[in-house]
Design goal:
366 residues; 23% strand; globular
């Protein structure tokens, strides 16, 4: 189930055929989901509600890097490898998504896979991009249940078809605006024929601020209508922490600084839904562009060509791409909630799915 299945049309630009980040040619997505056990938290045993999601910008992203840029709304989070992305302007492998305490495992597994593909010959280095949000409300996050096998499984599952959404992969234990959240995706096509696709890991926001198509649905679907997931021990910080990761992809020929500008626009899509980038939120965004093919992967033993011919959209013509990224981010967040099913995790904490009929009625009646 997705937003458009409920009759909710967000924005005005047309979508790609799958309305997903995989509408950008060459982009693939794979998930590995871990759901095990029920009942009270027993650290190291469960309950487990977590996983891994990988976004691959090319069939072999280690051999075919793409230009990329990043942006931060609020920095209470982690996305490894960003210093090299900023320095080189290149994304040199898959983008990994997982929970906060499993970033290292996913990063190390991607290093191992890169090394395997490199052949273990000569001098070699790898700086994977892996991002996180905290799923400890539902998951035994301190048990660190994500393994290298999960990364291998997500790689094997990656394809360019429709993307599973909601409580799947790294989105399994995530909560969005105090409804069940997780993975969401959407795409837009500009009048120039460029595709912009977005994938989010939505684990952020306060119920009271949730807005869909300008309708304050969160206030009308408050805790008296749909209970919020209450932790066993209340926090003095209150609700509204959590985080969101946004991956933006496009087939437009963009240079690194233009990718950074595109990544920034995810902020507006989040704001339209009601996200504000609270102090305890990690809101990290990465944008990559596949429109300059045949970029060279730097290595000690192969320096590549001395000069590279590039194409780029003129800076003054970026606005349609900005609009596409904003709309796709907004719809991807809604898709994450609409696709998610109610989940009960550790200590009986339950994150309820947003009620479809009520959401449809509120938005369409406005």
């Amino acid at each position: 189930m997705r937003a458009r299945d409920l009759g909710l049309t967000i924005g005005s630009l047309p979508t790609g055929p799958q309305n997903a980040i995989t509408d950008v040619p060459g982009v693939r997505v794979g998930h590995a989901t871990r759901i095990e056990g029920d009942g009270p938290l027993d650290v190291g045993r469960g309950p487990v509600r977590t996983g891994v999601t990988l976004v691959l910008p090319a069939a072999d992203p280690w051999a075919h890097p793409v230009f990329a840029g990043a942006h931060r709304l609020n920095g209470n989070g982690e996305m490894t490898g960003l210093e090299w992305v900023r320095e080189s302007g290149l994304l040199t492998g898959p983008v990994g998504l997982t929970n906060t305490h499993s970033v290292g495992v996913v990063r190390d597994a991607l290093v191992a896979e890169h090394a395997r593909r490199h052949g273990h010959n000569g001098l070699f280095w790898s700086l994977p991009v892996v991002a996180e949000t905290w799923d400890g409300l539902l998951n035994d996050i301190d048990g660190q249940h994500v393994t290298a096998h999960d990364v291998t499984a997500a790689l094997a599952a990656a394809d360019d078809g429709p993307v599973a959404e909601g409580g799947v992969g790294s989105g399994t234990g995530m909560v969005c605006h105090e409804f069940k959240g997780g993975i969401g995706t959407s795409s837009r096509v500009t009048a120039d024929g460029y595709t912009v696709g977005v994938l989010v890991q939505a684990n952020h926001g306060r119920r009271s601020r949730l807005t869909v198509e300008g309708v304050p649905v969160g206030r009308r679907l408050g805790p008296d209508v749909v209970p919020v997931p209450a932790p066993p021990l209340p926090s003095p910080a209150g609700a509204g922490g959590g985080s969101i990761i946004v991956v933006v992809a496009t087939d437009a020929p963009l240079l690194p600084h233009q990718c950074t500008r595109l990544a920034q626009r995810a902020t507006i899509g989040i704001a339209r839904i009601g996200g504000t980038g609270e102090h305890f939120s990690g809101d990290l965004f990465l944008a990559f562009a596949t429109g300059n093919g045949e970029l060279h992967a730097d290595s000690y033993d192969d320096l590549g060509p001395k000069e590279v011919a590039l194409r780029a959209v003129g800076n003054a013509y970026m606005d349609p791409l900005f609009d596409a990224a904003i709309e796709a981010t907004e719809e991807a967040i809604v898709n994450a909630m609409v696709a998610a099913e109610t989940v009960t995790g550790r200590d009986g904490v339950t994150a309820h799915a947003i009620p479809h009929d009520a959401l449809r009625e509120l938005v369409l009646a406005a």
